[in-house]
Write a structure and sequence with these properties.
By secondary structure, the chain is mainly alpha-helical. The chain contains four helices and no strands. The chain starts with a helix and ends with a helix. The mean pLDDT is 83.
């Protein structure tokens, strides 16, 4: 039984032989040293590059975001400036429109005044001409009437002219006397 216990202790699959432990430990140390000199620096370099890329990407993203924010702010400032400019232009246009309207109204009033004055002048000239024509006709008729009444010829021009003027003066006097009574009766 002791032999079986000894044999059983030596053949325990859970406990490795001392030589295997030493060979495994030496192999592990050699593999660790090789990996430490070759693979670990590459891993560290790749890790550093990735970290740098990620941090650089984040930094670039922050810079791009800041630049976009600055551009947005400048755009909004320009837009506000353009809106203010548009409002100023509209106000200027309204003021200019009002000024043009006032100028056109003044010109129209001046034109109306000028036309009215010209019309009054033409009316006065036509009236004067009509008065002259009527005086000539009334004078001719009065001479004819006077010749019939008197039975004498008024061939002399001076005499004829004196008779016509006297008759017209008498008519003007009658017209002046009737105007106050017509004006008083109309009141």
């Amino acid at each position: 039984m002791t032999t079986t216990l000894l044999a059983a202790e030596e053949l325990n699959p859970l406990l490795p032989h001392t030589s295997e432990i030493i060979v495994g430990l030496i192999s592990f140390l050699l593999l660790f040293l090789v990996l430490r000199r070759t693979a670990f620096p590459m891993f560290e370099r790749v890790y550093a590059e990735r970290t740098e890329k990620i941090e650089g990407g984040l930094k670039r993203a922050e810079e791009a975001q800041q630049e976009a924010s600055d551009l947005k702010q400048r755009y909004e400032e320009q837009l506000a400036g353009l809106r203010a400019e548009a409002a100023r232009i509209r106000d200027d246009a309204r003021a200019e429109g009002a000024q043009i309207k006032a100028e056109l109204r003044a010109q129209a009033e001046e034109e109306a005044t000028r036309i009215r004055a010209r019309g009054e002048e033409q009316l006065a000239a036509a009236r004067e001409q009509a008065v002259r024509q009527l005086r000539a006709e009334v004078g001719g008729l009065s001479v004819q009437l006077a010749e019939r009444i008197i039975g004498d010829s008024l061939a002399d021009e001076a005499r004829r002219s004196a008779t016509v003027d006297a008759f017209l003066s008498e008519l003007d006097g009658l017209a002046e006397r009737r105007e106050p009574t017509a004006a008083g009766g109309a009141s």
